[in-house]
Amino acid sequence: MLQFEKFTLSNGLKVLVYSDKTTPMAVVNILYGVGARDEDENRTGFAHLFEHLMFGGSINIPEFDTPLEKVGGENNAFTNNDITNYHITLPAQNIETAFWLESDRMLSLAFSEKSLEVQRKVVIEEFKQRYLNQPYGDAWLCLRPLAFTTHPYKWATIGKDISHIENATMSDVRAFYDKWYNPANAIMVVAGPLETESVKALAEKWFGNINKPHTASHNILQEPEQNGKREMTLEGDVPFRALYQAYHMPGRENPDYRICDLISDLLSNGASSRLYQNLVKEKNYFSNLNGYITGDYDPGLFIIQGELTNGYTFDDVIPAINFEIEEIKKGNFSDRELEKVKNKIESTFEFSKTSCLNNAMNLALYEWMGDADRINHEVEKYLAITKDDICRVAKNIFRDENLSQLLYEPLK
């Protein structure tokens, strides 16, 4: 059980304290409730661009990293479709440095044309490297809008089009900051060998006077049910054929989300999994083949993705994948197989708790989803899943009319 205490400042900032006396290090993690799904379709990539801009200095701190390095700290951040998360790890006796740094950039980020230009170039280069200039890089830029017609999950976190970042103006960036970077849209988790009262005093000192009202709402268009198979073929300078299958699946608030997670492990977690044993190792249809879920808060995607071995065609391999899926639908898997993937999930959860940073990030995420204490009941919910549950959900998810399929062909 992760034991924590929670309080809320008068400006709406939620603060969770996880006391861990086994480490001399402390973590300050701040989650902002804004991700790529909150963007304007004609101005995408802003949540991710902003993650970079937040390290460009604030009014009183021109270099974010310098004071942190002086006290033995390090920091990083990530953005996804749903949230943006920043974390600092440093010796516990220097914890106030993290409060000072995070409060200053929440209150008054330094908006300079130079910083915007530097970070714009960084993001554009990342866009080119990851999506445009590497084999199969554009697959997700095409698969998302194939699977989603309405929901903003139809564009990648980095953005829908590189021109959106190229054309981002200072006023666009300021407006995004003012809209989303507010105490009432943030959750701070402080973890380490600390007492709640001392954290409360620091939170009041550094964040209590930030009076920025949060009025934005998540006006997100929900995806209608897909009622027909969608297919697209790409050609590119790639070494082998590649297959991407995307099935719509429930979001995190739905109990069937966990069942989809278990199904992905049954199919594709490790060298003993069905897809690896039967289609990679035995038949040699694929050089690599994976089944996984996108992990989105709103209804997301169950993905089956692989690169074909030279000489095989899509007509060879797709029926073989369908056979493995049908076996899951029919319940043709042993109790031992199901127990093994449940044990893996339990051990992964328990192992993640050995990291103070993981605990801070996970507590922030679950609090954002409604209640941090839910993290303490996840494993038991996975362990309660039955073979009948898996068959029911597999039959519902793995339907042709729920499938968006991308075939990637090498240039002829």
What spatial form do the alpha-carbon principal axes imply? globular
Q: How helical, in percent, are the residues?
A: 40-55%
Describe the sheet with the most strands: 6 strands, mixed
Biggest sheet strand line-up: 1-2-6-3-5-4
Structural domain tally:
2
Classified by CATH, the class of the largest domain is Alpha Beta
- Tell me the Rg in angstroms: 23 Å
Q: Work out the helix count.
A: 15
| Structural class label | alpha+beta
Kindly report the CATH topology of the largest domain: Cytochrome Bc1 Complex, Chain A, domain 1
In CATH terms, what is the architecture of the largest domain?
A: 2-Layer Sandwich
Round the mean pLDDT to the nearest integer and report it: 95
The CATH fourth-level homologous superfamily of the largest domain:
Metalloenzyme, LuxS/M16 peptidase-like
Number of strands: 11
Low-confidence stretches: none
β-strand percent reads 15-25%
Order of helices and strands: EEEHHEEHHHHHEHEEHHEEHHHHHE
Gap between N and C termini, in Å? 56 Å
Notes on the protein architecture:
With 412 residues, this protein is an alpha+beta fold. The protein has 2 domains: 203 residues, Metalloenzyme, LuxS/M16 peptidase-like (Cytochrome Bc1 Complex, Chain A, domain 1, 2-Layer Sandwich); 181 residues, Metalloenzyme, LuxS/M16 peptidase-like (Cytochrome Bc1 Complex, Chain A, domain 1). Helices cover 42% and strands 19% of the residues. The protein has 15 helices and 11 strands. The strands form 2 sheets. Strands 1-2-6-3-5-4 form a 6-stranded mixed β-sheet, sandwiched between helices. A hairpin with a 7-residue loop joins strand 9 and strand 10. Helix 3 runs parallel beside helix 8 and helix 11 packs antiparallel against helix 15. The longest helix is centred in the first third of the chain and has 20 residues. The radius of gyration is 23 Å and the shape is globular. The N and C termini lie far apart (56 Å). The model has no long low-confidence stretch (mean pLDDT 95).
